[in-house]
Amino acid sequence: MSDVEEQVQVEEEVVVEESSSVSIEDCLQKVLRTSLVHDGLARGLREAIKALARGEAELCVLCDSVTEAKIISLVEALCNEPEEKIPLIKVSDAKQLGEWAGLCALDREGNARKVVGASCVVIKNWGADSEERNVLLEYFSQQ
């Protein structure tokens, strides 16, 4: 029986090491995929602003490479309203954000083709409770 107890302890240590090596971008990608499956994403600027204005947003992801500065200031202002502060995270590549949000076609091998860039994506419904979601919420609570 002592052998079984030692194996359980080793497995717990391995899980702790894996969770510490997970980056915020990896967590964000998995949370966006989960939310997409549960129909909880507002993709694109028009849908995102509607969700932010209605107060349906749980998390906002904004692309830094947007050419219009007014778009960035509008989204930041809607996220920082005094009634409801919505967590905002910025990514650098619009094509990558579009791929994470499902704005692409997949080939037979599962590789993304014909990726459409997204300037803003809002999570309206987290979908399922996951470890990645908890990591993101903890990250925003620390800031």
UniProtKB/TrEMBL annotation:
<dbReference type="GO" id="GO:1990904">
    <property type="term" value="C:ribonucleoprotein complex"/>
</dbReference>
<feature type="domain" description="Ribosomal protein eL8/eL30/eS12/Gadd45">
    <location>
        <begin position="28"/>
        <end position="122"/>
    </location>
</feature>
<dbReference type="InterPro" id="IPR029064">
    <property type="entry name" value="Ribosomal_eL30-like_sf"/>
</dbReference>
<keyword id="KW-0687">Ribonucleoprotein</keyword>
<dbReference type="GO" id="GO:0006412">
    <property type="term" value="P:translation"/>
</dbReference>
<dbReference type="InterPro" id="IPR004038">
    <property type="entry name" value="Ribosomal_eL8/eL30/eS12/Gad45"/>
</dbReference>
<protein>
    <recommendedName>
        <fullName>40S ribosomal protein S12</fullName>
    </recommendedName>
</protein>
<dbReference type="Pfam" id="PF01248">
    <property type="entry name" value="Ribosomal_L7Ae"/>
</dbReference>
<dbReference type="GO" id="GO:0003735">
    <property type="term" value="F:structural constituent of ribosome"/>
</dbReference>
<dbReference type="InterPro" id="IPR000530">
    <property type="entry name" value="Ribosomal_eS12"/>
</dbReference>
<dbReference type="GO" id="GO:0005840">
    <property type="term" value="C:ribosome"/>
</dbReference>
<comment type="similarity">
    <text>Belongs to the eukaryotic ribosomal protein eS12 family.</text>
</comment>
<keyword id="KW-0689">Ribosomal protein</keyword>
